[in-house]
Specification:
The protein is an all-alpha fold. Helix content is 77%, strand content 0%. It is built from 11 helices and no strands.
């Protein structure tokens, strides 16, 4: 088993969801955009476009976490999700500073409209949360949270990875960081736990459709950077 295959527990809902959309999952986690990050060949224009849209995505990610507070199954889960909102809002400020390091001023980031890919992905996640329960929402969110952890591990294991002078090393380091990896593993474990308490196995076909669509939308989110060239 590779390092990125042990998110979640054997027989748990997370691994079933991931394995159930194996082709779409690989198309997302090892997209040509990701490969370009790994070997350092990704065009700067593609990365800049991604960075701006990722900031806009984070705003709606915080809104989805706010919905998770409302949908949460316990007071403890409400506290956890409230802390996550605060962390994401702080991340938006760090993201603006990171954009500035890449020559993108805050005014440009804020003035850029959401792309169709950003709209379709973020609204899909929120729609699943509004229409369903906390498990529906968490399953829609998992490809982002857990997927980026897997992306980082795939890059670290890539024999073609550019280890010296890679312009995207700081991005790789963010998601390879033990803190982020722990968060990704906790998110997968939460899917497993909610799967047990919210009848996830009986609901698998619908949850699998949600997870698969979120993975496809993630791949399109990468692709928009390349399409903008």
């Amino acid at each position: 088993m590779t390092a990125w295959e042990d998110f979640g527990s054997a027989g748990g809902l997370y691994r079933r969801l991931r394995d159930g959309c194996a082709r779409d999952w690989v198309a997302y986690t090892w997209h040509p955009f990701v490969q370009g990050l790994s070997d350092g060949t990704l065009p700067l224009a593609a990365f800049r476009r991604y960075l701006i849209q990722d900031y806009l995505f984070l705003i709606h990610f915080a809104r989805a976490k706010a919905l998770a507070v409302f949908k949460a199954e316990s007071i403890e889960a409400m506290r956890d999700k409230t802390a996550a909102i605060s962390a994401i809002l702080s991340e938006t400020l760090m993201h603006l500073r990171y954009c500035a390091e890449w020559g993108i001023p805050e005014a440009e980031v804020r003035a850029t409209p959401e792309s169709a890919e950003t709209v379709s992905y973020t609204r899909y996640v929120i729609d699943r949360g509004l229409a369903g329960d906390i498990l529906d929402l968490e399953v829609a969110l998992a490809p982002c949270t857990v997927g980026y952890g897997e992306v980082a591990l795939r890059i670290l294991a890539d024999p073609k990875r550019r280890r010296e002078g890679n312009p995207y090393q700081s991005w790789i380091d963010t998601y390879a960081d033990p803190g982020y990896q722990a968060m990704a593993r906790a998110a997968a474990a939460r899917i497993d736990a909610l799967g047990e308490s919210f009848g996830g196995h009986a609901r698998f076909p619908m949850l699998s459709a949600t997870f698969s669509e979120a993975a496809r939308l993630e791949a399109r989110f990468w692709q928009q950077g390349l399409d903008g060239l």
